[in-house]
Amino acid sequence: MKKKLFSAILSLALATIMVIAVPISASAIESTSVRGSKISSPVVTGDTTSSVEQPQISTNSFIEPRDNYVVLDQNVSTGGHSWTQPSGYSSYRLYATNTRNEKMQITVSYGSNSYSYDIAANKSITIVVNNAVSGNHDIDFTTPSGSVSGKVTVRVSDTELQLP
Length: 164
Description:
Elements: H1 2-21, E1 31-32, E2 38-39, E3 55-58, E4 68-75, E5 81-85, E6 91-98, E7 104-110, E8 113-119, E9 124-129, E10 135-142, E11 150-157
């Protein structure tokens, strides 16, 4: 009886070790977004060793990362806005809406680098950067008429972000 009990416990322990030791491939991992759609592969942003940020753009909703927080949540203004990308937080997601009946251009600048993006009238844009440089980042907003309206939010993350 004791021998059978010991054998059963040992078999269970070995089975548990086997289950824990099986590696999970990156393609088998799935995460669920806030809206329930599944993402099964990471977004590749190019050479992540470069000191130049590689932005990605989407006009869809976004996926929540694990460790993150909002550093900027303001109405757009002709004076622009800025945020400090913290050290150790290599990703950010910028979400901007244009509530005017004309195209709005946003320009994101850091150091001597800058990127410009057009947002169609009454539309929004999501920009994801997964190799962000720490330090000050500026955002400027312009339209042909000189008037701007909408909202901008920047969320920083210490885990890679994905586009929907």
